Predict the structure.
Amino acid sequence: MSGQPLRLAVIGDPIAHSLSPLMHTAMLGALGLEGTYEAVRVAADALPAWTGSPACRMLAGFNATMPHKQMLLKLVDALDPQAQAIGAVNTVAIRDGRLYGYNTDGMGFVAALREQGVAPEGRRVAILGAGGAVRSIVAALLAAGVAGITLFSRRPEQGAELAAAFAGVKARPLDWQSLTDDLAGHDVLVNGTSLGMRGMQQDFASTAFLAALPASGVVCDVVYRPGRTTLLAGAEALGLVTVGGAGMLIHQGILALEHFLDRKLDHAAMARVVWDALRPRLED
């Protein structure tokens, strides 16, 4: 990297809620790097023009959230194989005027598992949902060596489509009455839906289905606000290992910064920095 201040951003619409500026500013400070990280509102129809603009090209890189992750596939100059398999880009590094697209979401999820001492290798995983976040998690879990994945989707056609894209993945309709029976044989459950998210109307009416998991089972939630969701509280009551959504948020951000800087970082040290920076926001 040159001695010039690093300029980074996150784009989306809406974008004011993003915690990425807080995360990356904290990491840059801990690394002793001079730079800025801004949240920039970019409407969906303005994305092609923005990626070709001086405002974009003066950056060292940017993160992307909804609704840009899929459209960026066609706008970057080079695409990482995993981002191509996932079908979405959430991180773009800019080097010599070229845009390099990556997806760090799923790898961030796996890193969060490992941070909590959960090795994904050989696990049989059940996932609620089949949206974009789940697609990235599926790709990363398969790359990490899980034994198999079953998707339970409220939109069966979406689950079937995702399962067809990856070997070793099955799809079933999300039927709360039969979920308990369907969970037999799995030892990890992941909530990849918005159920339980603060501000949303829907939550888990019951978490009784968690009793179908073994005593050594693991329950994960991609929701990070609140930090202790209804699902995680139900799992804790059963003595199950829990992994909250903040870990995925933090580790995908660390991986993104590695792409921006084009070098490896100490994940444990960076995670501590970001946890300290985010804790007040995640607990409010």
